[in-house]
Design a protein that fits this description.
alpha+beta; Alpha-Beta Plaits; three-stranded antiparallel sheet; rod-shaped
Length: 119
C-alpha cells in the first residue's frame, strides 16, 4: 500500500512539474507600418531591413506604402524594425531616416519626405 501511495505521489509530482516548467510557444505578432518609398529596389531594401531587424515576414506594397510584418515579440519589436528601416534611408510612420542616408539612395528611390509635407 505504501508503494502505491509513493508511486502515485511521484507520478503526480512529475506531471505537475512538467506542466509548471513547460514553455509555451511564442505567438507571432502581425502589424502594418507605413513606409515611404517608390520602386522595386525600395521594396527589396525595406523588406530586407525589416527581416534583418528580426521580422519573420515582411511584405511592402509600393502602391499603398504599407509594410506587413510578422515577428516574435521575444526577438524584436515594432520600434526596432522601424529604426532599422530608417537606418537604410526610408522614413516610417514613427522614424525619420537620417538625411545623409536618404541622400545616398538612388534617384529612383528618393521619395517626397514626410517632413517636407508638414511644411
Amino acid at each position: 500500500m505504501k508503494n502505491k501511495i509513493l508511486f502515485a505521489s511521484i507520478v503526480a509530482f512529475v506531471l505537475s512539474a512538467s506542466v509548471t516548467f513547460a514553455q509555451t510557444k511564442p505567438t507571432p505578432k502581425s502589424e502594418t507600418i507605413k513606409v515611404w518609398g517608390n520602386c522595386g529596389m525600395c521594396k527589396t531594401t525595406i523588406e530586407t531591413a525589416a527581416k534583418d531587424a528580426g521580422a519573420s515576414t515582411a511584405v511592402w506594397n509600393k502602391t499603398t506604402k504599407m509594410l506587413k510584418i510578422t515577428y516574435l515579440t521575444s526577438a524584436t519589436s515594432n520600434t526596432k524594425i522601424q529604426e532599422k528601416i530608417a537606418s537604410v534611408g526610408y522614413d516610417t510612420k514613427d522614424q525619420t531616416a537620417p538625411d545623409a542616408v536618404y541622400n545616398e539612395l538612388p534617384e529612383c528611390c528618393q521619395y517626397e519626405r514626410k517632413a517636407a509635407k508638414k511644411n
